Fold each of these.
Amino acid sequence: MPPKRKTQAAPVAEEPHGFEFGGPLGAAAISIGLPLGCYMLAFLCNDISGCPAPSLLHPSTFTLEKLKQDVGWQGFSQLLNTNTVIATLGYYMLSLVLYAVLPATEIEGVELSSGGKLKYRLNSFNSAVFIVVILAAGTAVEGANFVVWTFISENYLPLLTTNILISYALATYVYVSSFSVRFPNSDKRELAKGGQSGNIIYDWFIGRELNPRITLPLFGTVDIKSWMELRPGMLGWIILDLAFVAQQYRTYGYVTDSIVLTTFAQALYVFDALYMEPAILTTIDIIADGFGFMLAFGDLAWLPFTYSIQARYLAVYPLELGIWGCAGVFAVQGLGYYIFRACNNEKNRFRTNPKDPKIAHLKYIETASGSKLLVSGWWGTARHINYLGDWLMSWAYVLPTGIAGYVIQNSATHPISAATPASGSVFGGQPVGRYVVPGEAKGWGMPVTYFFMVYFAVLLVHREMRDEEKCRRKYGKDWERYCELVPYRIVPGVY
């Protein structure tokens, strides 16, 4: 007689979760406002007139017609085309095929509140390397004119639109699908605690189901949330950067140290995340947040198209940093990466093998729920010390843009400005047919190129506040005791 199967109990009721992000009104505003923000960043810092668009620098004479001329507005038809939809879906399909066929490791996630653990197939690093090798081979043969690079430069706006539409469609699919979750169930499906408000807009935005999955012929079961977190958007960010590097070379005939440094810093962050893929299974996104529009849009549109702004800017304005400028950026990047990787490694070792000699000396407190919270080492200096390293690395992304802002001068007889270097570039060569000077825009482009650093600080502080609230709800009095032992949140001695 076969053993009795353990019955999965429905989630235990707990105190109301409450609204985040301003509730339904805030969710609606973000769902409309952030996509519009992506378009604003794309249009207002452009390769047609300048960064920012020159008409914005003269409020007294500003007209909508001047702005349209500055940004090259050709009507809504320029925002989407069939080729970009096909290309984007093809990119997603390639990533899905690589997920299914390349070697992978199977790892269990954390214990679900309803019991049991989900298994995850992890090979995003292998998939990314495979795709990058293909791109490298194409570039070796065709150079900066490789079809992928030219296609991205010529279809940037339609690519943005396509990914925004996919994020809307995906959010709607997982929301509707979440109503098929039943208790008890044998496939370990459960609803996110924060996504059951009963308000359609809010639950669609925040994510109603915790771990939506889909089973596809030939590909097997795909965990939608973890797949979207590290695959199309994360690698897409670096692919966009590389396309802008190629664009700079096609325009000027050389590649500057600034765009190489920015692309390297961002690629290091992305490939580190892909290589350390198992660590994602203990993040708040996976263990606590539902998957809705917030994560879908963030993963597929916001991340690749706003995080690559610096490379897009430098593709048009070829700034040279020199040895000391590069050294300064490397120092900031190195410090941020050291803090980020060291504290995350310490946490992962403690969670997987507390007897590891490298962390066995660390002190911790044990909560009533059985969890252990570190109170020494990196995690004894601040409760979210990893966010400090994360933020410092963001400086290395934006600093290479310098005192940003430029005006594009298209006169073929205009002399080459000292701001447009004719030599000393990374790969040599001479500028051809493109004259870009700081002009009256100098400094006014910084709200665009430094946007990521400011936004990321706000994001991390908000994320830390959400973490704190979830931990306070989970650990109760034990969390208060922990906060007394580790009083600082992100920056030791400051915050």
Note: The radius of gyration is 24 Å.
Amino acid sequence: MGTSVIDGGRLLFLVMWLNLVPQTDSCPAKCVCYSEPRPTVACQQQGLFSIPTDIPVRSQRIFLQSNKLTVVKSTSFSSCHNLTVLWLYSNNISYLEAGAFSGLEKLEELDIGDNSNLRTISSSAFQGLTKLHTLHLHRCGLSELPVKVFRGMFSLQYLYLQDNYILTLHEDTFLDLANLTYLYLHNNKIKIVTNNMFRGLINLDRLLLHQNRVIFVQPRAFSDLGKLKSLFLFFNNLTVLTGETMDPLVSLQYLRLNGNQWICDCRARTLWDWFKRFKGSSSELECYVPEFLAGKDLKRLKSEDLEGCVETSQTQTNIFSSKGQSGKFLSTESPFGVSIPRCCLGENDKSSILSGKSRQITNNPLKEKENISKTKYKDHERTKNETQHKQNDGPLGTLSNTNDKSLENLSPDLIDSLESSTASNKKKKKCSKKPKSDNHCIRSRGFALKVMTFLFIPTTWLSLALS
């Protein structure tokens, strides 16, 4: 009887002892496993060609970076339902099997960056990762992202897509990412920032788009970015950015637009006006054209500096060339769609230029003399009226409400269809800051008409043309 009691007591003690001793799982070869602060399997820099098959199921963190892995299979982590951190960066991964991360509902951080052979990702690659808050996809050789690739990732806060070859982003790519705060897209090849590219990013705090090839930002591209505090667009191919485009950025504090080739004429007026209201910190915006403003900061110009215009031919030759830093212009054709900007023209000239018509020259030299006299009178009246209505609108004054709206109708398709320009390299005259005198203009027109008359009319009329 006594012996039975003793044996029973020993058995009970053994059971209690086994329950108190922590259970340990086997650790894969070439890996180090530890339990604190969280169950972790560390296999980095071990020259592994495949993911170990005997990873403990209770693992919460797995470090497999800096190996030679090529494929992530659907079974690689299927038993690791407690996994919260997975590092796979700096490998040779070129393929993610469908369901590679399925079942990892608790995963919070996934780093598969620096896998330059990955290049493409399935639209369902991240399906089910509803708890993921950080995703690294930098330096993966990606040229595009599938439609709805981030669908259902409502917890994502940090998205790293820099140093890829992304040319464009589908509309509503980030629509489900209402909690995203940091979006890194720098050092890609994006050309157009479209109206719906960033739709849904209502809590975005930082947007890095520098060192791309951005040539145009559509008017409503930033409509949902009311909480954005940092915007980097430096070292792109921007020449014009309207104030209306920037208006939704009511929380913006840090703005970098340097390293672009800004056109500082009437097309920059709305941006200049926006900067008067902007209270944050900004880099300089160095003017590229016109020549007399080259190197000056757009923000520090006076209103009268923006009254002139730059001929499109000069813009084509100088700005849209293959020179410059990363993000080069591949064409010399203007993206603005018209040969002469509307704001470069007087009211009497806009209709004829935009309709493709011009003043007809007759073959009657006497009639031409009459036309010249009428033109001189009209030019004099126009100059007089402009002088009377000119506003005193310095940096602290009132801007004119006649802003250029031509860029709002620009189609992104124009950019993709650019062709090499056949324009001459001869330096073209640009619009002067101050108009030349009427007498000078009349003399120039008269001389041109006389030359044309000499070439195209009978010699019997020559004396009339030169009189």
Note: The radius of gyration is 33 Å.
Amino acid sequence: MAASAARATSTVHARSPHHPSSTVLAGARVVLPTGTVEGGRLVVEGTKIVKDAPADAAVHDLSGHWVVPGFVDIHNHGGGGASFTSGTAEDVLRGVMTHRRHGTTTLVASTVTGDMDFLAHRAGFLSELVEQGDLAGIHFEGPFISPCRKGAHSEELLRDPDPAEVRKLIDAARGTARMVTLATELPGGIDSVRMLAEHGVIAAVGHTDATYEQTREAIDAGATVATHLFNAMPALGHRAPGPIAALLEDERVTVELINDGTHLHPAALELAFRSAGAGRVAFITDAMDAAGFGDGRYQLGPLEVEVKDGVARLVEGDSIAGSTLTLDTAFKRAVTVDRIPVEEVVAAISANPAKLLGVHDKVGSLEAGKDADLVVLDADFTLRGVMRHGEWVVRPRTG
């Protein structure tokens, strides 16, 4: 854990949006970009974090708790029984609120493989929710992926990443497309990466059967993210290192990790952190409808999924079909099971994905002038409170 910053310089103030006075959150361990501050202070004024609190500011005692930035999820297919690929606006918002109650204050909606016309129509639909501020963007996972590593995607709907077709989807998103996952070794893959980079859209290598050399070529062309590293790609080999080695070694790449205890062995998680460094890791959920909802049968695009004991698998084929993870669970597991320092977990779950999305000037860290998005955790790292834009989504009960 990083050394605590001097208390005299650690106060970050914020105020609640619909109240005349500022609200000071006092007494907690506050994780700032400069380190963890014991007995720190945060003041919420309106929707923002500010530097100074007036004398009449209300004080909320959070002694014995942690205050960390709101979580940022760049890869999420749904939750609360709702799918971002097929649900109504009400369904999508229910999924967003499910994850928001678990600390995710900034969320990118991910789609799954489908018919191109349907996906283009869906992009236009989701873009309206981005424009309203409910979503932070759209991520297309499929259909431009390898049939050899399709995971929970419908093989008959897969296609090569022709740049014109990839462009069709990002145009349909009306400026809200944030990321496209590609098997860059397929015909058109490298040209699509270049096109995405030119348009300011993240090209992510994933669901790929690429070699080490092919992955290096994709990175040089502009790919900057590894979609759920280790999953849906060739294993690391000593003679054929494949995409994993190329993605881990390159400073230009951020690697997504699903820390649910199912997708990754703890040793694989540690390998990623040690190889890439905490500044190049982004925790994601890859959540599907069942997140925050429960076991049962669900649809993931055209495929049927059964969730049992919190693990989602295809009914036909038994492949893992996304996760039921929420980021508060990923945070707690990272600290208590994987023994990753809190500051590194905060980077992976907030700051790094915010930087990837280009919204680090607004979210991802607790600093004056940024949105008052934060999560309150107890001493055992269980979520106790969530604030978004200065309003409590989950109000902490501290006695």
Note: The chain has a mean pLDDT of 91.
